[in-house]
Amino acid sequence: MASPLISVKNLKKVYQMGDTQVHALRDITLDINKGDYVAIMGASGSGKSTFMNIIGCLDKPTSGEYFLDSIDALKMNKNELAEFRNQKIGFIFQSFNILARTSAQENVELPLIYNNKVGAKERRERAFNALKSVGLAERANNMPNQLSGGQQQRVAIARALVNDPVVIMADEPTGNLDSRTSYEIMEIFRTLNEKGITIVMVTHEPDIAQFAADNIVFRDGSIISHEKVTNRKIPQEELKKLPAPETGDKK
Amino acid sequence: MKIINLIKIAYRSMSKNKLRSFLTMLGIIIGVASVIAMLAIGEGSKRNIQSSVASLGINTIMIMPGAITSGGVRLQAGTSNSLKIEDVDAIQTRCDLVQYVSPVVNKGVQVVAGNQNWSTAVYGVNLDYFDIRDMKVSVGEKFTEIDERTAAKVCVIGYTVDSNLFGGGVNPVGMTIRINSIPMRVIGMYDRKGQNAFGMDQDDGIIAPFSTVQKRMMSNNNLNSIYVSSKSDLVMNDAVDEISKLMRQRHKLAPSDDDDFTVRTQQDLANIFGAVSKIMTILLASIASISLIVGGIGIMNIMLVSVTERTREIGIRMAIGAKSRDVLIQFMIESIFISFIGGFIGILLGIGVSIIVSKFGGWPVTVTPTSIVIAFSFSAIIGIFFGWYPARKAANLNPIDALRYE
Ligand SMILES: Nc1ncnc2c1ncn2[C@@H]1O[C@H](COP(=O)(O)OP(=O)(O)OP(=O)(O)O)[C@@H](O)[C@H]1O
Ligand SMILES: [Mg+2]
Predict the structure, then answer these.
(1) In tens digits, what is the pLDDT along chain A, a chain of 251 residues?
(2) How far is CA B333 from its chain centroid?
(3) B93 in helix, strand or coil?
(4) Are B380 and A38 in contact (CB under 8 A)?
């Protein structure tokens, strides 16, 4: 069997807050294989974001091991990590985190700008294609303040996709969105996952977690359950169950 | 990340904050403009001195009573009574390298003609003086040797005196003027000479025979100075030595004594004045460059604000692959951009100010390429120097901290 895409062993994260220690992660051991679609659940403060930041190579654990795509992520320096993130990981955040006063197209181009192997022409094409794949082709030149929340999140997804990452990491991607828009985002995730892209997603909402293949539950910095979703939901069907939208400008 | 993209990013973030970028630039603009203008004024006055030295004739040597102290500053000028008419005679007969020599006695006087009056200076000299100073008399004529011997009450006036006493419209020759109540006949007017290196109007004066001024207006027989010209500018320094030796001998100075007179050439004076103007230029330019540094601090301040404001943007960029170096360069380019554009506008403004100063202030002003290069590289260095700290601060941010920043 091939080695797992994400492999963490005995991962610990302790925050020092003055005299007290906060054990955000206690001894996490977990493998995620290529093509998996994992939803991480858990109460607020249970360590989900801390975990995501570490496997997203944005933060370092206090102790433990972490291999991403068979590479030891904890041995890399800041610049190597930057390049690693650029090549391997697509991020999607709860608060979208796209650059203000920068067009959708340019936001999506951003990861490619930091990738020296991609020229200007290819960059523009790939960014446009990514936008097209999330249904925003005709919004390419809009500024973020001219886009709805759902559209902004789709720009963020396009940006996460554009550099062909091995894994997409989404921390509460639907946290700021209504149900309809959330399901639309889940539909995009489903198609991506079907193309073989690994997805790790944190969510608070149990119904959103039902779209994933696996559910992991955190409590107090530990994994308390890890199981397959038995009756997975399909976003398109859930969308049909919703009352018809009032306005037609959802594209 | 390619430089061209970084320049685009810098350009965009500046154009998002046009007013702020402009105000930041203003510090650099003012600094560069004032450095350019100050250097231009300094350079202009330097050239002015050089040209007026050439116009005075570089053969001219002046002997003044009193000694120089160290540092080249002549103290108590004119208070010493060491120069006498016999010195003039001795120089004339015994110095081989000297061509012309003239005693000079001068005095500030009140001149009256009809109901006009004017205060000016009268110079008692001999005929050689006209040759030494390269003065020509084309209206009327100079006085003669007979006038000198008889202490005749005649004089040659300058253009400024003429225009103040007679309005400049009539031929002054033949008129009588009263100099300190002594009636004197105007026999000529010397050609205009304009200002000298010190900004003094050389046409504001009256020239009369030495004996006339000495006997009728002075209370003692001391000379104010002796004007000499050497046979050529090549033997000038030798002539100076010759004169000094003779004077020491005549004044019976022991080898250990200091000179009780000062021998100066036009070149010496020009050099002193040039040195003074150089010091002034350096002083003014240093003051101007302080404003350049203040401008640089302005850049640093605004860049720090910008880094704080854009912490989240930095976090996003880092999360998706920006290296520290990319962030560093991005912010450096921004500050260099500001200082470069500011420097460029400053140069144009500086040249403009220089032209205005020379037009309206009557100052001679010359903008040299060197001063442009100096001002420009100064502003570039300031952009790099003051932009570096904020840029490094941005580059050293942790992606996770930057992303969490509210
Ligand atoms: N930078 C930090 N400094 C100190 N403590 C922190 C820091 N970040 C997180 N923590 C603590 O670590 C624990 C886990 O936080 P984390 O953000 O991972 O929770 P979470 O599961 O993502 O919660 P939520 O669902 O509310 O987003 C919490 O107790 C939190 O207070
Ligand atoms: Mg969280």
Answers:
(1) 578 999 999 999 999 999 999 999 999 999 999 999 999 999 999 999 999 999 999 999 999 999 999 999 999 999 999 999 999 999 999 899 999 889 999 999 999 999 988 999 999 999 999 999 999 999 999 999 999 999 999 999 999 999 999 999 999 999 989 999 999 999 999 999 999 999 999 999 999 999 999 999 999 999 999 999 998 999 999 999 888 766 655 44
(2) 40
(3) helix
(4) no
Bridge-based pairing of strands B154-157 and B206-209 is antiparallel
Single-letter residue type at A213: A
Number of the ligand 1 atom closest to the C-alpha atom of A47: 18
Q: What domains can be seen in chain A, in order of their start residue?
A: 6-98+163-241 (3.40.50.300)
Dmax over CA atoms of chain A, in Å, equals 55
One-letter-per-residue 3-state SS of A41-91: EECCCCCHHHHHHHHCCCCCCCEEEEEECCEEHHHCCHHHHHHHHHHHEEE
Output the six-digit token pair for B325. Answer: 């170096």
Whole-angstrom Cα distance, residue B323 to residue B330? 11
In degrees, rounded to 5, the angle at the alpha carbon of residue B160 between the alpha carbons of residues B156 and B162 is 55
Closest CA to B258 of B62, B95, B98, B74: B74
Nearest ligand to the C-alpha atom of residue B404: 1
Q: Is B228 helix (H, G, I), strand (E, B) or coil?
A: strand
Partner residue facing A58 (CB), from B16, B322, B400: B400
How far, in Å, CA of B223 to CA of B247, rounded?
A: 14
> In this predicted complex, what is the ipTM?
0.93
Closest approach of A97 to chain B, Cα-based (Å): 7
- List chain B domain ranges: 3-52+272-404, 102-225
> How many Å apart are CA B42 and CA B50, to the nearest integer?
13
Outline where B72-209 has alpha helix (H): 85-94, 128-132, 145-150, 159-166
Distance, CA of A89 to CA of B297 (rounded, Å):
40
Q: Do the bridges between strand B116-125 and strand B182-190 make them parallel or antiparallel, or are there none, so unpaired?
A: unpaired
Report the residue among A20, A49, A208, A218 best suited for mutation to probe ligand 1: largest number of ligand atoms under 8 A from its CB: A49
Amino acid at A14: V
